TrEMBL record, chains A, B:
One of its GO terms (biological process) is terpenoid biosynthetic process. It comes from the Bacteria. This is Farnesyl-diphosphate synthase. Gene3D superfamilies: Farnesyl Diphosphate Synthase. It comes from Massilia yuzhufengensis. GO terms for cellular component: cytoplasm. PROSITE patterns: POLYPRENYL_SYNTHASE_1, POLYPRENYL_SYNTHASE_2.
């Protein structure tokens, strides 16, 4: 019953996010056609939309404005999608399959993949700048937070550390630092940007959201590593077993499989505990923590 | 005498821009070291800084705030530099030399070049979001304009059209449309963002700046094509004669060399005429139009 309500809520949000992305992305009939078609090919109709779900769940706690939430969701998803497009390119992970479809450089070509990523990043900032239902000062804060999370002190920085760590025996704390940037920064900012679509946050509420999002950000990566080691490509919608094949340090390679699963479970509990100040209202954020840890793909 | 004053003004601005970039870019001692080192390698110590010069010259007309102008200059330059880094990659123009130095993918590696570009783009938006001397509503407008100019309806879109036009016999109006996006969008927005660092613009002033920047935006590309056909690599600081070698449509290939030079000169006059509403005050913008058309590299 509760699980069904959660599934329906997720469906609603995913539809909303699809609509928001549709509205943010230029039509494929707008020049240049191929670029816009490729941007839509990779951004629409797929993905778990974890970052938008986090933004919506967090926004609901603070009475988030609907237009603003849609654009925040589109913005964080476009940053995520652009990073996947670039990450899949031959000079990075060289992956052919993403979300069950050929990657952009396979379906189109490498130069187009490069430009698709570049243009999606700009479009993400435009989505936030186009919000017209929030005070401009709030919007500037949100744009700053997104830039920090996406750039060299966030996602791009994490990817750079990841690149440099191939074949190295990382310590657990180094691996954790890498992931707090690579995937954690965008997951964390999704929670915060969602909240900023609503009423002002108290310091206690902000700290609670930060603790929650740090826990689920890390849990997400631990589970990713577990799935890469245990699931098959068809289930994942991307090539499984790549980390080991690429000699990349992972939680599974450092801690082992069972301790990695236990760590994910512990982080799930920490995420729940962090939400205590919000009581029953934080149901969706709790359910998302469960989803992140218990997902199969 | 006048020319000397202009040269000194340019030097001052270029020093200011270098300082602003220094301040915006994370230190090479900040993790991840290689990424930050590579960002600084490509962004600092080189380049004509045309876009920052335009922003400063236009900002001076409206009493532009110094902190804001520095960040605007850093932002437009970082977008420009990121586009060069990605454009030089093997899957795009495959160029080894830029501003007289090995390109980023040659000095480092392709994956680093990809991330350097991505991170510089985020850093550009952060630079604008970090301005704290302008009304937030003004800042949001500036962030929106930068996103539009950088994205698929601006620079990235122009690059996509450029890619698709290799080997095609473009008409002059198609070539013009491509360049109005590829280089024009960022040159135009540099003029407008500089102006927005100061007092409110009247509609007449805004139109005058738009006409000026459309003319110099196009002139810039016409002259680029002329130089690519006539100058040598050492003078240009990048590989000369590449357009013809790559079978790319250019003004020179469509109009011929002399008519291209005449077109540049005509655009220079149009730029001067557009500045009429500002009278003597627009001296630096006029001098920049001259520089853009009369440059040798």
């Amino acid at each position: 019953m509760t699980q069904q309500a959660f599934a329906l809520w997720m469906q609603d949000v995913q539809l909303d996010v699809e609509r928001a992305l549709e509205a943010c992305l230029p039509a494929a009939t707008t020049l240049p056609h191929k670029l816009h078609e490729a941007m839509r090919y990779t951004a629409l109709g797929g993905g778990k939309r974890i970052r938008p779900l986090l933004a919506y769940a967090s926004g609901a706690l603070f009475g988030g404005d609907a237009q603003a939430l849609g654009r925040v969701a589109a913005a964080v998803e476009m940053i995520h999608v652009y990073s996947l497009v670039h990450d899949d390119m031959p000079c990075m992970d060289d992956d052919d399959l993403r979300r069950g479809k050929p990657t952009v450089h396979v379906a189109y070509d490498e130069a187009t993949a490069l430009l698709v990523g570049d243009a999606l990043q700009a479009q993400a900032f435009q989505a936030l700048a186009d919000i017209d239902t929030l005070p401009p000062a709030r919007q500037v804060t949100m744009l700053r937070l997104l830039a920090e999370a996406a750039g060299s002190s966030g996602m791009c920085g994490g990817q750079a550390i990841d690149l440099d760590s191939v074949g190295l025996a990382l310590q657990r704390d180094e691996l954790e630092r890498m992931h707090q940037l690579k995937t954690g920064a965008m997951l964390r900012v999704s929670v915060i940007l969602g909240a900023l679509c609503g009423k002002d946050l108290s310091p206690v509420e902000l700290e609670a959201l930060k603790a929650y999002s740090a826990a689920i950000g890390l849990a997400f990566q631990v589970v990713d590593d577990v799935l890469d080691a245990t699931a098959d490509s068809a289930t994942l919608g991307k090539t499984a077993g790549k980390d080991a094949a690429d000699n990349k340090p992972t939680y599974v390679s450092i801690l082992g499989l069972e301790p990695s699963k236990e760590l994910a479970e512990q982080l799930r509990r920490e995420a729940h505990e962090a939400l205590a100040p919000f009581g029953e209202q934080a149901l969706r954020l709790r359910e998302l923590a469960d989803l992140i840890v218990q997902r199969k793909a």
